[in-house]
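Fill in residues.
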């Protein structure tokens, strides 16, 4: 079985990092050549990351990179950082988003908003973008995804984390925007006021595993390899992190 995963991994390594779904001829995966078509179809049906599709009278093996990464870390005995390098930046963000979803977070990606408060006079920034937002219970994770493929200095990580904290402050200072975001993610029918207070947690998720786990302003610095355990242990570690609390929310019947 390890041979099967390894052959797919090598195919993915050679493909364009910008493409998430890869179509491969069956013959390019030697492990599959031992099967007749019926057995092949049944075999591939056991895996979430691969499927068999027909195009122009030919059958192809179709592989989803993100699903492959999440399903093969232990089998290939490579850490998630190594395998994640087959993704481009957008794919890396999608991988982070998928790990959040597996941990019951409702997510959105590339969230942009305009600062309508007086905070922009202090920062000289009118618009912000947050790579990934995940909501679970009262927790709202605001993630800046960094696919840096080399270990950066602490000052670089520290600066990036403080900028993410600045984005978090800006979101709090725009209560109408935050309220619309929460209602969009959780739905207008949910009694959101019962969830108050919401706790905003700015953080960095990086490809590289750095020895420093928190910046000078208590912003978490989490490697992709550690993200799953970070999410599972978050409730026990709140006291170590910088958080921003939102005690009020403007519930609207309709989001424009």
């Amino acid at each position: 079985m390890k041979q099967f995963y390894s052959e797919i991994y090598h195919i993915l390594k050679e493909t364009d990092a910008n493409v998430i779904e890869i179509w491969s001829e069956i013959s390019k995966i030697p492990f599959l050549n031992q099967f007749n078509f019926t057995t092949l179809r049944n075999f591939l049906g056991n895996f979430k990351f691969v499927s068999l599709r027909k195009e122009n009278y030919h059958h192809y093996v179709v592989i989803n990179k993100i699903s492959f990464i999440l399903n093969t870390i232990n089998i290939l005995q490579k850490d998630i950082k190594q395998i994640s390098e087959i993704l481009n930046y957008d794919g890396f963000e999608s991988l982070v988003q998928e790990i959040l979803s597996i941990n019951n977070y409702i997510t959105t990606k590339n969230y942009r908003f305009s600062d309508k408060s007086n905070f922009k006079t202090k920062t000289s920034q009118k618009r912000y973008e947050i790579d990934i937002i995940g909501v679970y219970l009262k927790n709202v994770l605001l993630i800046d995804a960094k696919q840096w493929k080399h270990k950066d200095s602490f000052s670089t990580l520290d600066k990036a984390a403080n900028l993410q904290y600045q984005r978090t402050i800006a979101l709090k200072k725009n209560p109408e925007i935050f309220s619309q975001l929460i209602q969009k993610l959780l739905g207008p029918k949910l009694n959101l006021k019962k969830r108050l207070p919401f706790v905003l947690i700015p953080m960095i998720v990086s490809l590289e595993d750095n020895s420093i786990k928190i910046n000078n302003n208590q912003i978490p610095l989490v490697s992709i390899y550690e993200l799953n355990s970070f999410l599972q242990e978050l409730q026990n570690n709140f006291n170590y992190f910088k958080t921003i609390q939102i005690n009020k929310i403007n519930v609207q019947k309709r989001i424009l």
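Residues 162 and 217 are 7 Å apart (CA to CA).
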